[in-house]
Amino acid sequence: MSQTKLKDDLARERLIDLAAEFYDQFEGGEVPEMTLPTRTKSNIEYDEESKVWKYGDRTSSRSANSVRGARKLLKAAYTIEFLARQLDEGRSSTLRELYYLSESWDSEEAHFSDQDESNQLVEDLEIVSHVTREDFHMRPEESGATLMGPLKLREQTRRGEREIHCQEDVGEGGYQIPNNPDTIEFLEHDIDFVLCVETGGMRDRLVENGFDDAYNVLVVHLKGQPARATRRITKRLHDELDVPVVVFTDGDPWSYRIFGSVAYGSIKSAHLSEYLATPEAEFIGIQPQDIVDYDLPTDPLSDSDINALQSELDDPRFMTDYWEEQIELQLDIGKKAEQQALASRGLDFVTDTYLPERLDAMGVI
């Protein structure tokens, strides 16, 4: 039996076990309920040992002892039935389709009121079953994130396996990361490090300038706030190929949080932090010090930027001498800059000077 079939069977078994728990509770004269970690900011803890966000000890229940709770369990039961059937049939669907599919369910009480409700229920099922939504064959809408660099991989597709080299067998757009990167097998590589890039414009500049060839780097396009699949494949690349990961973003508080989600995980996906986060990742984005040293073109910090920076000073992920110094400097100068601002020194400056100097100082090259 293939690994994919084994994973599908395990996911289906755990879903059925959840439904069986509801049945057993009914049969035993108990009010059915489902217990989950309380999914609030106050119940998120930064684990110093693993360097990722995790849920704390507080829990809450979805119980049928109220009309609202009973509706939630009814929707969970319908969703479990749908997902189990989907796994049986070897099919998949998107989170958006699940929301619309509920309109066809025979009980109006099981219909979702909006997509946020259906998304949250899928996350609930992930938490209680210890199975990811990718293994339920649930897909987000396309993220479009890509890889470009000296990596050969084997991908499982509906038409069977195929081997792809992420430079030789792809166009300028690169290899598109699939929804479930665990279906990928890394075959061989010449990667010296992984460079995660926030913007498409900078990703294209690096590829056009041949940076991936010159430095044996695998360029991962994050496409803004990275999708789960992007964070998962980044973690796998680091852990399985034993290569450094660096994150290249704009110089603003929201981009620092993009780095934080790659390195330490996010509050929204705290139940999957050890599956998605790469705590060893390092920041190589535009620093406030770069704005000063290179006299980069800038925009003024907005009030929301200032509030976000002040919030990051109290964020455990950024409580280091480096980050405190850079954030204080940014608040002092009142400016932010994009990656593309490096082009003010020439189109080749980022690949010929800026990145090589930063990477050398960090000991990556």
From TrEMBL:
Known EC number: 5.6.2.2
Q: Which InterPro entries does the entry mention? A: Spo11/TopoVI_A, Spo11/TopoVI_A_N, Spo11/TopoVI_A_sf, Topo_VI_alpha, TopoVI_A, TOPRIM_Topo6A/Spo11, WH-like_DNA-bd_sf
Q: Does the keyword Isomerase apply?
A: yes
Q: Under which main EC class is this enzyme filed?
A: isomerase
* Occurrences of domain Spo11/DNA topoisomerase VI subunit A N-terminal (ranges): 71-137
According to the entry, every stretch annotated as the Topoisomerase 6 subunit A/Spo11 TOPRIM domain falls at 193-359
Q: What family is reported?
A: Belongs to the TOP6A family.
Name this polypeptide is given = Type 2 DNA topoisomerase 6 subunit A
The protein's organism comes out as: Salinigranum rubrum
Give the gene that encodes this protein.
Answer: top6A
